[in-house]
Design brief:
CATH class: Alpha Beta
CATH superfamily: NAD(P)-binding Rossmann-like Domain
Organism: Alternaria alternata
Protein name: NAD(P)-binding protein
Number of strands: 7
Radius of gyration: 17 Å
Order of helices and strands: EHEHEHEHEHHEHHE
GO molecular function, one term: oxidoreductase activity
CATH topology: Rossmann fold
Helix content: 40-55%
Bound molecules: NADP nicotinamide-adenine-dinucleotide phosphate
Structural class: alpha/beta
Family: Belongs to the short-chain dehydrogenases/reductases (SDR) family.
Distance between the termini: 40 Å
Pfam families: adh_short
Strand order of the largest sheet: 3-2-1-4-5-6-7
CATH architecture: 3-Layer(aba) Sandwich
Largest sheet: 7 strands, parallel
Shape: globular
């Protein structure tokens, strides 16, 4: 069980990529207690083991959570409630691009991208809100970060001079635009209570997201993609709450 002094952070989809790296960076500080979200127990256990082997000062434990599955989200919520009784920060990081690995139809890919990238984060916030409220009652500032992408900016998409115009990825773009709207709705709902809600784009980063997410294609290291979220979690970007943040400044909606 986390102590009262520790900051409990849930990161979904943290068995690899940016989520894993964020967990690793936070664990350098003993104030953090990380709930490492993973839909696969096997991958999650391997990730936790890897982090524990580094003997970092913070604490980490696996939380099985499949963001596509309402029962899994509900079970994860109950588990955190029973064991820790609160949550201080929630990072909706898990996502898919919805790009074809097989011959899946556009309909199937749109549905899959919206389920993981929008419906999941909506249900997770609804489920964990009462645990974030417990954090608020302890005099803390609950924070929610929805990990989005510049690919979801309607302003950038409408700009024909933008160098990334050729990247179609319609399921990804549309689901991240919807995630941005979800963030605005969550900020409307929870902002007046003093909670800080953000969407944050890590920028083009090395990960398992797609075949192009490699350093040789210009992707930045995972450590750089994850790092700005620490400043958000530590309140250094609170003046941007409700915004569409990137490492420095904000994207146009
Ligand atoms: N990398 C970039 O260039 C970039 C740019 C902008 C935004 N982002 C955003 O950054 C976030 C992290 O992505 P990443 O680049 O680190 O990609 P990644 O390496 O593919 O990591 C995605 C994570 O999400 C998990 N996930 C997928 N579906 C899930 C589900 N239904 N339930 C639970 N977990 C699920 C994956 O788990 P499995 O291993 O089980 O599949 C994986 O751990 C995403 O929101 C992404 O959109 C990334």
């Amino acid at each position: 069980m986390a102590s009262e002094e520790q900051t409990i952070v849930l990161i979904t989809g943290a068995n690899g990529g940016i989520g894993f790296e964020l967990a690793a960076q936070l664990l350098r500080d003993n104030k953090y207690y990380i709930l490492l979200g993973s839909r696969s127990i096997e991958k999650g256990e391997a990730a936790v083991k890897l982090l524990q082997e580094r003997e970092l000062p913070g604490k980490v434990e696996l939380l099985q959570i499949d963001v596509n599955d309402e029962n899994s989200i509900s079970d994860a919520g109950k588990m955190v409630e029973e064991k820790h009784g609160r949550l201080d920060a929630l990072i909706n990081n898990a996502a898919i691009t919805g790009e074809p690995q097989t011959s899946a139809s556009l309909s199937a890919r749109m549905t899959a991208a919206f389920l993981t990238n929008v419906t999941g984060p909506a249900i997770i916030v609804e489920t964990f809100a009462k645990l974030l409220e417990k954090s608020e009652k302890m005099g803390r500032t609950p924070r929610i970060i929805n990990v989005t992408s510049g690919a979801g900016s309607i302003g950038l998409r409408s700009d024909r001079t933008n160098p990334h115009q050729e990247m179609k990825v319609v399921p990804y773009r549309t689901s991240k635009a919807a995630l941005n709207m979800l963030t605005a709705c969550q900020d409307y709902e929870y902002g007046p209570k003093g909670w800080k809600v953000f969407c944050f784009c890590p920028g083009f980063t090395e990960s398992n997201l797609g075949p192009m997410n490699k350093v040789e294609h210009g992707a930045k290291p995972t450590s750089e993609g994850a790092k700005p979220m620490i400043a958000i979690l530590e309140g250094r970007r609170d003046e941007d709450h409700g915004g569409y943040l990137k490492a420095e400044g904000c994207w146009p909606w």
